[in-house]
Amino acid sequence: MRVLLVEDDPLLGDGIRAGLMQAGFAVDWAKDGREAELAVSGEPYDAVVLDLGLPRLPGMDMLRRTRTSKNPVPILILTARDSVADRVAGLDAGADDYLIKPFDLGELQARLRALVRRAKSQIEPVIAHGALYLDPAGRSVTLAGRSVELSAREFAILHELLLNAGRVLSKAQLEEKLYGWGEEIESNAVEVFVHHLRRKLAPDLIRTVRGVGYMIAKEPA
Question: Which residues form the Response regulatory domain (predicted)?
């Protein structure tokens, strides 16, 4: 799950980013409204966490421009502005949720998961591949009727491979789904997650195309 964090306070932003990463989110961090506008117009984020008091472009302006461009990405406003009028203005401008500082990090994580579930349930059906079923909205996987526990990054890789069944995805393409800007990427991370998926699901589910990447074969029509 890839999130754009828009926060100009370095200490608060660093804490939010670390907390979301610990919960399995891939986090890109923009520190002003212009940077956020460019990021959200060029990357397919699952959600945006948006402060309002931003340099260069205020958060409300960034929100309105995003909605004017018909970008449906779920946006959660995270701000110290706590009046009813502020909350109404933010929601009417197109925000999907509104959380007031100070806040509990666990609540922020839960609200983001809820936003993404609602958005994905409208656009992504359950993906079936033989006896394997992946539910993007419920973040669940079953194999032959048995629930399979996956880490957030294992789920992200499996989801991406199933969405692109029949196509080879490079290691770099998969890493983009797992890590945010500036986040250190271990050289063998993708290989380790693929190994775990094969062990938990089926040894031959994910095929290695040597020198190119990984793929899941397309189901026969």
Answer: 2-116
Residues in a beta bridge with 82 = none
Which residue's entry shows tokens 């539910």?
A: 135
Same domain, 116 and 12: yes
E strand or H helix that includes residue 141: strand 140-143
Note down the domain range covering 141.
Answer: 125-216
Q: What is the pTM of this model?
A: 0.65
The CATH number linked to 177 is 1.10.10.10
Mean pLDDT of the chain, nearest integer: 90
Pairing of β 132-135 and β 140-143: antiparallel
Length of the chain as a residue count: 221
Condensed to tens digits (0 to 9), the pLDDT of residues 132-182 reads: 999 887 788 999 999 999 988 899 899 999 989 999 999 988 888 777 666
> Total structural domains in the chain?
2
Which residues have C-beta within 8 Å of that of residue 32, sequence separation ≥ 6?
Answer: 8, 54, 55, 56, 57
- Strand partners of residue 214: 169, 208
